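W.,

You were right to be curious about this one. When I first looked at the sequence I had no strong expectations either way, so I just let the prediction run and decided to look at it fresh. Below is the sequence, 111 residues in total, followed by the output.
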Amino acid sequence: ADNYYEQEIKFQEKIDKIQRSNLLQNPVTVDMINGILQVEFPEQMKSKLISGTITVYSPKSKSNDRIFEIAELVNLRQSIDLSKMPAGIYQIRVDWNADNVSYYNEKTINI
């Protein structure tokens, strides 16, 4: 593969983001409540500018994948209505930044 080196760098960046996430006092929490995906960011990020994406990834079907921008946080929480998503197992991938420091969290959920 011609882009092997590029893929290796991206993989290392992801590992670095995961390690930074693991060092946080409180982790990002991801929960499904009545068809609503709740992603809550750590209290220590309250004064920081948070941006990034939340990917709802379906290992079963690419057509079920959804990507949401992190925006309009209310009390460090973003709520996304997934009630119309097909039932199944999904990976929630939170790729986020707080004041230009990048983090990554992942959780498997059942819809």
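Here's what jumped out at me. DSSP finds one helix and seven strands in the chain. And, maybe more interesting for your project: The longest strand covers residues 89-98.

Coffee later to discuss?

I.
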